[in-house]
Amino acid sequence: MTPITQADINKAAWAACDTFRGVVDPSIYKDYVLTMLFLKYLSDVWKDHHTRYTAEHPDAPDLVAALMAQEAFVLPKGASFDDLYKRRHEPGLGERIDKALHAIEEANITKLRDVFQDISFNSTRLGAEDQKNDILRFLLEDFAKPALDLRPSRVGTLDIIGGAYEYLISRFAATAGKKAGEFYTPAEVSDLMAQLVDPQPGDDICDPTCGSASLLMKCARQIRDRHNSRHYALFGQEAIGSTWALAKMNLFLHAEENHQVEWGDTIRNPKLRTRDDLLRHFDVVVANPPFSLEKWGVESAENDRFGRFRRGLPPKTKGDYAFILHMIETLKPRTGRMAVVVPHGVLFRGGAEGRIREALIRENLLDAVIGLPEKLFFGTGIPAAILVFRKFKTDDSVIFIDASREFEAGTNQNTLTPANLDRITATYRARAAVDKYAYLATLADIEGNDFNLNIPRYVDTFEAEDQIDLMAVRAERMDLKEEMEALEARMAGYLRELGYGA
Prior knowledge:
- A nine-stranded mixed β-sheet has the order 3-2-1-4-5-7-6-8-9, sandwiched between helices.
- β1 (204-207), α11 (214-227) and β2 form a beta-alpha-beta unit.
- By secondary structure, it is of the alpha/beta class.
- It folds into three domains: 6-176, N6 adenine-specific DNA methyltransferase, N-terminal domain (Ferritin, Up-down Bundle); 187-457, Vaccinia Virus protein VP39 (Rossmann fold), CATH 3.40.50; 470-501.
- The chain has helices at 6-15, 26-56, 61-69, 81-86, 93-107, 109-112, 129-143, 152-155, 158-175, 187-197, 214-227, 241-253, 298-301, 320-329, 345-348, 351-362, 418-430, 443-448, 470-497; strands at 204-207, 233-238, 259-263, 284-287, 337-343, 366-371, 384-390, 398-402, 438-441.
- The protein has 19 helices and nine strands.
């Protein structure tokens, strides 16, 4: 049997979206496609394992049943993809799929509680009953094609399934416009942030605005790849229910069992708490929060019982520092380090933000300011920056890196290449000035700039132009003028010969 490649399954999964194109908006149908991929995965794994156990114990059906009951996910009778596919021509298909998902959730309640509550295949968003049945039948038929046979005995490692899920999320983000930032951070930015915080075995890692959990999983993958270890724990919180569900499915598809991802508003109701009802602390905190969120919860922040805003209350129409202050408050005292994506206004805006910024710098928490190219993030063309904070530093320096001019240009989206990422991380670790690229600032330097972190104040990228010899330019101009006059005289002579002149 020819082994399936990541490209094969990505192509097949993306082709399944053709059913919806032109009928339903991508921001809506992404949830249907991704949920169906998850259901297909659960069903194919169940079928594969049942076949194997039956072959190993042909005369012991009770043993086979006991083994199946110990599976990572239990699939109730009648709720599998194959069961739904067999009845695809019968009316009421949307209701049948919803009932199957509900049965799966009930059978796996500790893992899948509420995961399917925001998705309804019986929704009128898919059109009238006849149209809805046709769309869902086509979707089942797309996923029933041999290319999307997801049995482990065929596709091998779970990485391929998780990779397909991540691929679909990234493709949806590319077509989702402004809403894209709600659920996806570009892969290379996630890679960069993971490299900057350098997660280690044993770390507790958190993303308080986790979206589809792509950033969390980049940190996890770095530990697995660099240290050959799965000794870590992932934590997250996500405010949007459907996006939280994507995160849960995404984590399970990547075999990330050791996670706790909560649904709720991180600022108004942080859910990652200790038994003493205090904020839980983490070794690593990473996030790409919504840029300058207007309604971020200033009312509840005024009386925050966790003390997150003791350095100041962010402006009521810009929530950037609300997320930063929350993240700072959840760092472990010595090992805590964090990376957060911010719009450039965070670096220099005055008022309450300026006072908060000064407090963070005076406490020696800020470690790096890294300027990124424009058009990196889905849904916005503006350039962003990454701020790195550490709870424990050996000096008061801050490394400023202007990486805004080094990228691979694209029509709609720019990207950072591996070489770009390597240069940023190497410069961050070296903590030394690089001409027109990086500057290691002291506290005195920053004080001298009134705690303004605007990168051009520290990294001089001015390119001096060659001096112009004005006399040489004038002489060249006179020569050209004489040459032009001679040509005009010759042209006039030719015209006279042809009878066009006096």
